Amino acid sequence: MTTLISTIPQIRDALRATFRSGLTRPIAWRQHQLYQIARMAQNERELICDALKKDLGKPKTEVLMNEIGSTIDIAVKSAQRLPEWAKTEHPEVADWQKPWNPTIYKAPRGTVLIISPWNYPMILTFQPLIGAIAAGCTAVLKPSELVPTFSQLLEEIVPKYLDPNVCRVVNGAVPETSKLLELQWDHIFYTGNGRVARIVANAAAKHLTPVSLELGGKSPVIIDSAYDIDLAAKRILWGKCNNAGQICVAPDYILVQRDKQDELVKAFQKHYNAFFPDGALDSPLFGSIVSELHHKRLTSLLSRTKGEIVLQGRADAARKRIEPTIVKDVADGDSLLEEELFGPILPIVPMDSLDQAIDFVNARSHPLVLYAFSDNESIKQRLVSETQSGGIVFNDTFQYLAVSELPFTGVGESGYGYQFMKYTYDTFTQLRSSIDMPKDAEQHLAIRYPPHSEEAVKALTAAVHTPIPSSSL
After folding, report:
1. Is residue 308 flagged as an active site residue?
2. Of 62, 67, 176, 214, catalytic
3. What is the pTM of this model?
4. Is the N or C terminus of the chain more exposed, i.e. has fewer CB atoms within 10 Å?
5. pLDDT, tens digit, for every residue of 191-207?
6. 241 catalytic per annotation
């Protein structure tokens, strides 16, 4: 059910009043809300699986593992670690400043807006919410209108587990989101595409609201010719098949030594047949494309490619299904390299050297993640030092998201702002610096007051004459 636009400012104001009341400040209260998120995910898992099956054709195992299980794990761990995260800090300072009691307080930012996408709507809604609640914020959740069954379910189950004075769900499409963005928030967390991200950032700028943008882009895979090609193909294909390639960290295209391309194609064919003996079109283990529009976009890209389709994925427009499709001999300027694919299409771009592969990656917008398959430490170090991406993953795909203690972020076109566990908590937390000057410090502060004697000026400007160590290149 779409939220009435006229009620949206009232919802924001009510959440702000709750924040100002101090309800969210006690650590024990926050921990209880986090455990409630875990209970919701666990208790309502069948309804969640059914909703995502209806909206996205998502396999149940995939939902349980990547959406529900991840939400429970992060919520429980965050609740357990919160007392340590929230501790007031006292930084190390010079002895003469210690009497001032320099302190860093951890303060919640306030009332925040979380706009989540359709592709992983459970975890990408609750991952930021867990951090916001851990920090002591109140929040509005705006799930995607492209997953209407799931979004309606959220509106029904969230108030059963979370205090409705602290967290509210707003449903709708562009008009409702536009109204939300007219309002002032203390932080906005958006996950989605670059086009909408610019709208979000522009709206936030009017209020000087800080923003986290978790976007995407074309995440490349570089394969060292000395690496086990068969294993690389198996791991890449598995990463591409998750949610039918509709994830921001999906392998988008492959850069491989030209003389290894056919070996790689054969390995893909072998593992595809092993994963889906009867094909993926009717497999309950393979998801659907989110909408007719996205299905048409993918088939259009395929129809215009100049590459050779070597694993011909069947398509069923009526059911919005496309099987994994491998295309070799894709060249710069091809349709499959125009935009983030966000689907089960995998182009292979043959390269003549590692230098050429690095240049190819660096000539494009910085990806959310760079994948590389190599056992050569010098090659790994070159990729770390000579490329830019949000993350860099060696010898696997997708699975690195399971390490929730690592920060997750983009760079440039792939977004900015850190998340996962403590990093999400930090995103929604303001570090408040403080000192408490004792009265008896006055004798040491006397030289700062005008008029300044020559001796006082010398003491106050002493840093100007700090010895600088010698250095050279």
Report:
1. no
2. 214
3. 0.94
4. C
5. 999 999 999 999 999 99
6. no
